[in-house]
Amino acid sequence: MTGQRRWPARRTCRHFPGFIRRDGFAFLMFVILQFHLGIQITPLAAPQVGLFEARKVLRAVARGAACKVDLSDRWDFWDVVHLPLGEVRARFGIPPLAAMGARQEAA
User: 0.70 exceeded by the pTM?
Assistant: First the structure.
């Protein structure tokens, strides 16, 4: 749903703080610690240094915040797995990547 072609953990994690309705900042801290400061928080991804790109993260958080569904709270993806991705994005209120980029350029 993010529009990313590849799914490295750091790209996927950018959107989480936006759609998590309860304490999304904690998840953002996880991303900063794991992928910018190189402190391993999870064994599922190698720690890395210097990958925090503020502009991209803030755009992703804004897109996540626009999402009408908290995908971290008992969301059942089977309800929408049969739908085209564009329809799922529209249903959940996730703005297109291009629209978010245009908003940032105008600001």
Answer: no
3 state DSSP class of 46: coil
Cα 89 from Cα 67, distance rounded (Å): 8
Token duo for residue 37: 């400061």
Distance CA 107, CA 87 (A): 28
Tokens of 55: 């502009």
Consecutive H or E run containing 50: none
Per-residue pLDDT of 60-72, as tens digits, reads: 878 878 888 877 7
What b/e sequence results for 37-48 when a residue is b if at least 16 CB atoms lie within 10 Å of its CB, and e otherwise?
eeeeeeeeeeeb
Residue-by-residue DSSP string for 4-64: -SS--HHHHHHHHHHH-SS-HHHHHHHHHHHHTB-----TTS---BS---HHHHHHHHHHH
CB within 8 Å of 71: residues ≥ 6 apart: 19
